[in-house]
Write a structure and sequence with these properties.
about 400 residues, alpha/beta, Enolase-like, domain 1, TIM Barrel, 2 domains, five-stranded parallel β-sheet
């Protein structure tokens, strides 16, 4: 059978509990025995997401999986209600899986199909290193441990349960936390401060100015994501770099961000903003503005594998987010093998995305309901008591 005659026979989803949310893996099967995997992890909206994947399945079964761009275009077009987190996350995962199939069918990594490798490894910053910390002193101790493991950049949200505004007392606590971490790690480690879209414009500006003495690499998402003019208003008066983009879902959203000049770093997520090719296009747009590309990547192993393919072949790729530790069964649900040293992750060279899921292991950790922690004061409860480093 010629590759041009390959047909999709099925698409399945696997929702896997991972303590703070559920990973949602998508697997596309073909009549040639080549399968592809993608990840659609959309925090806290898994049931809607699985339904969206089922709609895509109805369209794609019987189709040639190698026509990746055509399938993406037609599904996006025919949704009528374009964009949105649920549809785009479902489509992103399927798109990843189709690239995985294409790479496997040709025996090459996906980055080879997107222009070839520009780098062998990529610098990372870690998230989740602070699990369980509550006081500035506890954050400082956990930061020291991360640096001892070779970490050179770390991100966290020190703002408790604040929303729109923050009291002077809570802001003081947040700044003491930043100060304690800066003192603990020294001047050679980059600090990235997460805002989670919490603040109104004057509060965002105030916090940005208060952060300046600590020389952060960036202040992420100071304002809610649905008004880029507000983000620009903060950026215009901020003495530190502003980043955003994890909650923008289409190429058109990023066009507005660039034209508004609202951010210094962009952080699209491969599981939400359309998948591999859409992120490649977003990065190319950013390159024309000399804006660094630093994808959002706090989810599961398949999304990480896809983002590493982009890290290999994208000129303006700056730094990669990665979770510092995870549930112990992360090692079981895929064959992920990350090579880490001195703050860098090596780009895998296997065909396709270079990763497979273990369906049986996924089924051993079924969906569990989880709720948003950002405004409850439980944000640092990001990992269970038994946690493993996975790189």
């Amino acid at each position: 059978m010629e590759k041009d005659d390959m047909k999709i026979t099925d698409i399945k989803t696997f929702a896997v509990d991972c303590f703070r949310t559920n990973w949602v893996f998508v697997k596309v099967y073909t009549d040639e025995g080549i399968s592809g995997v993608g990840e659609a992890t959309l925090e806290y909206k898994e049931k809607a997401l699985i339904g969206a994947v089922e709609h895509i399945r109805e369209v794609l079964v019987g189709q040639n999986p190698l026509n990746v761009e055509k399938h993406f275009h037609d599904i996006y077009r025919d949704a009528y209600w374009r964009g949105g987190a649920v549809l785009m996350s479902a489509l992103s995962a399927v798109e990843m899986a189709l690239w995985d199939i294409l790479g496997k069918s040709l025996g090459v990594p996906v980055y080879q199909l997107l222009g070839g490798k520009m780098r062998d490894e990529v610098r990372i910053y870690v998230n989740g290193w602070f699990a369980g910390a509550k006081t500035p002193e506890q954050f400082a101790e956990k930061a020291k441990i991360a640096v001892q493991r070779g970490v050179t950049a770390m991100k966290w949200d020190p703002f408790g349960k604040a929303y729109l505004e923050i009291s002077n007392r809570d802001l003081d606590t947040a700044l003491r936390c930043v100060a304690a971490v800066r003192e603990a790690v020294g001047d050679q480690v980059d600090l990235l401060i997460e805002g989670h879209g919490r603040f109104n414009v004057p509060t965002g500006i105030k916090i940005a100015k208060e952060l300046e003495p600590f020389h952060p690499m960036l202040f992420e998402e100071p304002t809610p994501p649905d008004n880029l003019e507000a983000l620009r208003a903060v950026r215009e008066k901020s003495p530190v770099a502003i980043s955003a983009g994890e909650r923008l879902y289409t190429l058109k959203d990023f066009k507005e961000l660039f034209e508004t000049r609202a951010a210094d770093f962009i952080q699209p997520d491969v599981s939400h903003a359309g998948g591999i090719m859409e992120l490649k296009k977003i990065a190319a747009m950013a390159e024309t503005y000399y804006i660094p590309f630093a994808p959002h990547n706090p989810s599961g192993p398949v999304a990480c594998a896809a983002t590493l393919q982009l890290a290999a072949c994208t000129a303006n790729f700056s730094i990669l987010e990665i979770m510092y530790s995870d549930v112990e069964w992360r090692r079981d649900v895929t064959n992920e093998k990350l090579s880490y040293h001195d703050g860098f992750i090596r780009i895998p060279d296997g065909p396709g995305l270079g990763i497979e899921i273990n369906e049986e292991a996924c089924l051993e950790h079924p969906y569990q309901p989880h709720t948003l922690r950002h405004y409850t004061g439980a944000l640092t409860d990001i990992r269970p008591a038994k946690t493993e480093f996975y790189f």
